[in-house]
């Protein structure tokens, strides 16, 4: 029971990062030295994915180029004996991995993007990864953790995280019946509820393992929150027919769809980068020290 196919909805416009995303996909924004989409792909492959299905938009050719073979670049690096850089480029996509690109002609929401992947997924269970939710799984990548739950229970699994009640209106939120520590069966799921209407503070984040039944449900799902076809609404229908589990993953999530979350990811990934960590930590120490000096001077005056 291994999930072979992973879907990456990457057709969004990334308006919160304009003008940086005017001509380039938001999923190509780098965290230190790798684009967000590469972290997502590596996570999928670590969980056993062999077919990567990208649901793209008109301005997303850079994603296709990133995972394509760059003959001229590789030849130039080889000619200059830059072996390490050559290996870095060649390792972006391991051997045996297939990429499929599907155009989402109209931006009708996450549910519609997942529906666009149906011809490539077929009648198989599959995963969905949102690249702007960068998750540091610490000991094991988030999707690999979910794969273990899937293997044990053989049903759909959705990644969740506790959030402050003041933030629930930004998420799909679930009500669950406990199954095991950190694992519950979803009884109700609500997309972006008001604080007073939220069933809990357990929020859905950008990782899903789903059965193909979701496609039939998405076909008849009407536009919901934001005038879009919401994946959450189809999942709400699916829990009437099948067990869907909510899994509280182990690790840290960075919301790289927001500028602050993106900056946090760059700082924290920089602090553990094998080439940069020491110098970067020293720089941050000097920088924060400089910020504190005026405060100390002001206190001394008082």
TrEMBL record:
Record field: catalytic activity: alpha-D-glucose 1-phosphate + UTP + H(+) = UDP-alpha-D-glucose + diphosphate
Every Nucleotidyl transferase domain range: 10-267
InterPro entries (UniProt xref): GalU_uridylyltTrfase_bac/arc (IPR005771), NTP_transferase_dom (IPR005835), Nucleotide-diphossugar_trans (IPR029044)
GO biological process: one example: UDP-alpha-D-glucose metabolic process
EC class (word): transferase
Keywords tagged on the record: Nucleotidyltransferase, Transferase
Enzyme Commission no: 2.7.7.9
GO MF, any single term: UTP:glucose-1-phosphate uridylyltransferase activity
Record CDD domains: UGPase_prokaryotic
Family: Belongs to the UDPGP type 2 family.
Function in brief: May play a role in stationary phase survival.
NCBIfam families for this protein: galU
Protein name from the UniProt record: UTP--glucose-1-phosphate uridylyltransferase
Source species of the chain: Stagnimonas aquatica
């Amino acid at each position: 029971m291994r999930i072979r196919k992973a879907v990456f909805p990457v057709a969004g416009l990334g308006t919160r990062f304009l003008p940086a995303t005017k001509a380039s996909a938001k999923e190509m924004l780098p965290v230190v030295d790798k684009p967000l989409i590469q972290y997502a792909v590596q996570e999928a492959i670590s969980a056993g994915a062999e077919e990567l299905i990208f649901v793209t938009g008109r301005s997303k050719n850079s994603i296709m180029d990133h995972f394509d073979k760059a003959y001229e670049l590789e030849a130039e690096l080889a000619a200059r004996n830059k072996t390490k850089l050559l290996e870095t480029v060649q390792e972006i996509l391991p051997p045996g991995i297939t990429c499929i690109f599907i155009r989402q002609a109209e931006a009708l929401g996450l549910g519609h993007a997942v529906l666009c992947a149906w011809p490539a997924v077929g009648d198989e269970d599959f995963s969905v990864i949102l690249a702007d939710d960068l998750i540091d799984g610490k000991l094991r990548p988030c999707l690999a953790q979910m794969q273990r739950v899937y293997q044990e229970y053989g049903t759909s699994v959705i990644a969740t995280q506790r959030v402050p009640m003041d933030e629930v209106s930004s998420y799909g939120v679930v009500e669950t019946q406990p199954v095991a520590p950190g694992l519950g069966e979803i009884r109700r799921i609500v997309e972006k509820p008001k604080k007073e209407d939220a069933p809990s503070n357990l929020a859905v984040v950008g990782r899903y393992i789903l059965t193909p039944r979701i496609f039939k449900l998405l076909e008849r799902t009407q536009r919901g929150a934001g005038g879009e076809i919401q994946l959450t609404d189809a999942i709400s229908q699916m829990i009437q027919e099948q067990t869907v589990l909510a899994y509280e993953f182990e690790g840290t999530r960075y919301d790289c769809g927001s500028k602050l979350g993106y900056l946090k990811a760059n700082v924290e990934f920089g602090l553990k980068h094998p080439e940069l960590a020491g110098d970067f930590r020293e720089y941050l120490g000097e920088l924060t020290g400089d910020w504190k000096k005026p405060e100390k001077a002001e206190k001394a005056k008082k």
